[in-house]
Structure formats: C-alpha cells, structure tokens
Design brief:
It is a single chain. The protein is α/β, with parallel strands linked by helices and 305 residues long. It has 2 domains: 125 residues, 2-keto-3-deoxy-galactonokinase, substrate binding domain (Nucleotidyltransferase, domain 5, 2-Layer Sandwich), CATH 3.30.420.300; 117 residues, Nucleotidyltransferase, domain 5 (2-Layer Sandwich), CATH 3.30.420. 36% of the residues lie in helices and 24% in strands. The chain is built from 9 helices and 14 strands. The strands form 3 sheets. It has a 6-stranded mixed β-sheet, with helices on both faces. The radius of gyration is 21 Å and the shape is globular.
Length: 305
C-alpha cells in the first residue's frame, strides 16, 4: 500500500459538513486512492481558516507541478462556510446546469469548487449535501421515481420524478433527539448507547396514532426512570421512536404508497428502515458515503467538461 505522500490524485473529493471534513484522493477514472477524515467541521472554522484546515489534511497529496481540482459538497458552501454556493430551484435535476462556486485560495496547487445546494420557495426549505447524494442515486438509478429519505441531524424527505427533485421537506428530528437526550431533564434517564427494538417500535406506533399525547409521553421517560426503574437503553429507544414517529406521521404524504429509498449512515438508516417496515413498508437502503462519492464524481465530470 502506498504511503500518503506517494499518492498522486487526479482530483480530490470533499464532503465538508457542520462537524466533520471527509476527503478522498481520486484517480482520473474515479478510483479511490486514499481517504482521510478530520473534525474540522464548518461550525468550528472562521472564513479565513478553511483553506488551512483543508491543506492540513490533503497537502501530502498535492504536487508543485500541477493544479489539483478539489470538488466539495456540504455546509462548506453555506453562508457561514468558506464560500457561499448558489442554489438550484425545484423542480430541478441535481447538478444539471449547476453553477459551481469557486473559493479564493492562496495555495496555487489547488482549485476549490463547491457544489450548489437546492432551495424550495414554498414552503421555504434548503439542502446542502443531500443534493449530491441524490445525484449519486440518480447516477446509479437514472429511472428512479419515488421518494428518498435522507436521515440525519436534519432529515430530508425528497420526491424525485423524471430525474428531478420535485419537492422536499426537512425535519429537525436528529437535532431534537440530541438536545433532549443531552440538554434537557431527560439527560438523566437516557443512555448514550444501547437499544430496545420492541420499545422503539411501540413508541413509533404511539406517535403516529396519538401525536397529541407525545409531549406528555416524553416526560414520562423521566418519571418511569425514577419510579419504575425504566432502563436508560429502553428510554433511549422510546425517545427515538417518539420523535421518528412524529416525523413519519407528518411526512406520510411522502412515503405512503411510494417507492422509498433511505440514504444515510448505517445506524440511523436501520432505525428508519425498522420504523417504515413496522408500518408495512420495505424501503431500500443505500450507503451515504457511496452515494456522496458517486454524486461528487458526477460533479467532477461536469467541471472537467
């Protein structure tokens, strides 16, 4: 295996989110030569710190003899990021006729491109990063017609037809789970790890059938821990089930009667799969990293052309 300093990529793929930076050294024909990660996410950097954070990760791959294209997606292109990338407007085909933002760089060895996000005027909504995963899905399944669920901190439900993003909706489910489990009174009762599948599915059903009762059910997680010795693992699963169940109820118009794919990290994708499966649905799961790379590769081809 080559040392990092011996890698000579044709270009570099970057997924730069709020909390993490992920980079891949790519050959000209799309083979992964090397992969690195960093905790230098967008939220931890000021505008004049992005280039340095990137170079600390990729400098060993760069040559003094050429300019290496760096193609990025994610929150690096947000208003708080390195350079604000424009939005495409729904309905649109991700990356088609896209206007890539180019960041001003001091280092002459790189040219840094940012994939544009997608916006929706009514109801107002935006995405950055997910559009690249959808482009990756369409690169592999150009005839896909249905709905993509992209779970995470801010979960997206995206209707796709004729190769276009037609409509989408965002839910703060992941962020709510993080806040409630770590900042609220429930933090004393929620385990950081562990799971109870039966409790999770029961909470999903409760939230879908009786959404108005969930605010009270949330506090019961604390009460049952104090009075009935509810296990922290069961409390964690029920909290997740209540929140995902509320989301599924609100997003019913997206998944009911539709072909659904889930694009996300393994654990959260498994939770959404189980939640939908409990409602009689059988979505197909796709790996988030593979779809991201497929999408960035599609973007690189457009830049190269």
């Amino acid at each position: 295996m080559k040392k990092s300093s011996e890698i000579a990529p044709g270009w570099i793929a970057v997924d730069w989110g709020t909390t993490h930076l992920r980079v891949w050294a790519m050959s000209g024909d799309g083979v992964i030569l090397d992969h690195k990660t960093s905790d230098a996410g967008m939220a931890s950097l000021s505008k004049d710190e992005f280039e340095g954070a990137l170079l600390r990760v990729i400098s060993e791959w760069l040559s003094e003899l050429k300019i290496t294209p760096v193609v990025s997606c994610g929150m690096v292109g947000s208003r708080q990021g390195w350079v604000e990338a424009p939005y495409q407007v729904v309905p649109c085909e991700p990356l088609k006729n896209a206007k890539f933002a180019v960041a001003a760089t001091r280092d002459p060895r790189i040219k840094f491109y940012v994939v544009p996000g997608i916006k929706q005027d009514s109801p107002a909504d935006v995405m950055r990063g997910e559009e690249t995963q959808i482009a990756g899905l369409l690169a592999q399944e150009p005839d896909f017609d249905g709905v993509a669920c992209l779970p995470g901190t801010h979960t997206k439900w995206v209707r796709i037809s004729a190769g276009e993003v037609v409509h989408f909706s965002t839910y703060l489910t992941g962020e709510l789970f993080s806040l409630l489990s770590s900042k609220s009174v429930l933090r004393h009762s929620i385990a950081q790890n562990g799971w109870d599948t039966t409790a999770f599915k029961g909470a999903i059903d409760d939230a879908i059938t009786k959404p108005s009762a969930i605010a009270g059910r949330l506090f019961s997680l604390r009460s049952e821990a104090l009075i009935s010795e509810l296990s922290p693992e069961t409390a964690r699963a029920r909290l997740s089930g209540y929140l995902i169940g509320l989301e599924l109820g609100a997003a019913r118009q997206y998944w009911l009667g539709q072909k659904v794919v889930i694009i996300g990290e393994e654990k959260i994708s498994d939770a959404y799969y189980d939640a939908l499966n409990a409602q009689g649905w059988a979505p197909v799961k796709y790996d988030a990293e593979l779809m991201t790379l497929a999408g960035i590769s599609s973007a690189y081809l457009k830049i190269r052309l």
